[in-house]
Amino acid sequence: MKGLVYIVDDDAAVRDSLELLLDSAGFQTQAFDSAEAFLAAPRELGRGCLLSDIRMPGKSGVELLDVLRKRGDACPVVLITGHGDVGLAVEAMKRGAQDFIEKPFDDARLIDAIAGALANNGAARPAIDPEAAARLAALSRREREVMEGLLDGLSNKEMARARGISPRTVEVYRAHVMSKMRADNFSELVQIAIRAGLRRD
Fold first, then answer.
1. 116-167 pLDDT, tens per residue?
2. 77-81: strand order across its sheet
3. Positive or negative, the Cα torsion across 34, 97, 101, 177?
């Protein structure tokens, strides 16, 4: 077995599909229909990886993360999010989440995120990563503005309207940001930005 994954999602169909996917990938799984059910279940602190939806009735995925950290539980957390929740996911990563996956997610990307979280074992991130900071410093003023808009969950159209440029121009800047920051996907961009100190409180 590659490790234990706790699945927390209020949608039974999603829980079933995630269990099937992760079981077939060699992970052991335990599923819960709410954050409260997960928190009430006996388990060893720090063991396994938590895969939670960010929006659920009762406690959200971010609130669940906060409770775990207050308990001193270093269990790594990966969140599942819709596009409208990107700002929440970024906030969760500032609070210690290892990664987040946007819906609809790619199976291989999800498996890689969980494997990476388990390998990292909930270790705290270093303060400022000089290499990430150097990548951030290489962005032009406009590229940095576009990057900050992305991290706030803004669409290309919203950024274009706010800055008086075309959505196509925003797309070009966005491509430059991904290239200069050496990010293959949006969650990598968020992680690099946090390591660079951009989104720290």
1. 888 876 555 556 788 889 999 999 999 999 999 988 888 899 999 988 899 9
2. 28-32, 4-8, 49-53, 77-81, 99-102
3. positive
State pTM to two decimals: 0.77
Identify the CA nearest to 122 among candidates 73, 81, 88, 194.
73
Contact 73, 46 (CB under 8 A): yes
Residue 53 sits in the same domain as residue 137: no
Which of these three, 100, 120, 140, is where a domain ends? Answer: 120
Helix (H) or strand (E) holding 95: none
φ/ψ of residue 67, rounded to 5: -65, -45
Domain boundary at 120, 154, 171, which?
120
Reported as a single tens digit per residue, the pLDDT across 69-121 is: 898 888 899 999 876 677 777 888 888 888 888 888 889 989 998 998 888 76
In 6-140, where does DSSP find H-type helix? 12-24, 35-40, 61-70, 86-94, 107-120, 130-137
- Provide the sign of the torsion angle of the four alpha carbons 34, 40, 43, 46, taken in this order: positive
Which residue shows structure tokens 């999603």? 14
Better-predicted residue by pLDDT, 173 or 93: 173
**Do both 70 and 167 map to the same domain?**
no
The tokens for 11 are 């949608």
Half-sphere exposure (Cβ direction) of 195: Cα atoms closer than 13 Å:
20
Residues 110 and 145 in one domain: no
